[in-house]
Design brief:
Length: 197
């Protein structure tokens, strides 16, 4: 097990409805040392890629993105949720269905913060159906930028997001891929990581 898998196994809680709770270290209380390790691991896995900016979505991706932006020495942008439909002139906007909140979120970034020609590394805490990541990709591409890669702390391998993004040809790195989890027994298993990791 790598450091993040070990942390999830020790402190994660399998909630009902296929939700993994990691409030102890990622979604409510933040284990800064662990988030720093996550950021360093992304930096290692995306070695050689051009990164002009790090992009995430509020709220839980911001901690990871901030430390990663610090490692790269580049700005960090977070997409905001909840824009209204009729004020698109100054914003790039996309829609993402929220798996955890069961509602459609409109997410946006104000135009000055994403620019044509920029290479943008997208990061987030979780990947489930890929809605949040796809919305972030759309924002980068609307601006005329290039997605350098997508870094995810925890991918839920039972959901389709990872497969969809890999099929679309994006360089996706997930530090822990949950293969199965069971609320009744509190058992979590992980998919093996490729040999290079
Ligand atoms: P997706 O958009 O890929 O379907 O879901 C990713 C987003 O939903 C993440 O930004 C994360 O906030 C949330 N999410 C999805 N599944 C889980 C989960 O099992 N646990 C937690 N804590 N968040 C989740």
């Amino acid at each position: 097990m790598n450091f993040l898998e070990a942390k999830i196994a020790a402190e994660g809680y399998v909630g009902q409805g296929n939700i993994l709770k990691v409030d102890h270290f990622l979604n409510h209380q933040i284990d800064v040392k662990l988030i720093f390790q996550i950021a360093e691991e992304f930096k290692r896995r995306f070695d050689g890629r051009r990164v002009d900016k790090v992009l995430t979505i509020e709220a839980s991706g911001i901690a990871i993105a901030t430390l990663l932006g610090h490692l790269y020495g580049v700005p960090v942008v977070f997409a905001k949720k909840g824009a209204t439909a009729n004020c698109t002139d100054d914003k790039y906007m996309a829609e993402a269905y929220s798996f955890t909140h069961k509602r459609m979120n409109r997410v946006f970034v104000s135009k000055p913060y994403l620019n044509a020609g920029e290479h943008v590394l997208i990061v987030d805490d979780f990947l489930a159906d890929g809605q949040a990541a796809s919305a972030l990709i759309s924002l980068v591409e609307q601006a005329g930028g290039t997605v350098s890669g997508i870094g995810i702390a925890i991918e839920k391998g039972q959901q389709q997001g990872g497969q969809l993004l890999r099929q679309r040809g994006y360089h996706l790195e997930s530090l822990a891929i949950v293969r199965s989890m069971d609320h009744a027994t509190q058992t979590i298993t992980f998919a093996p990581q490729s040999a290079s990791h």
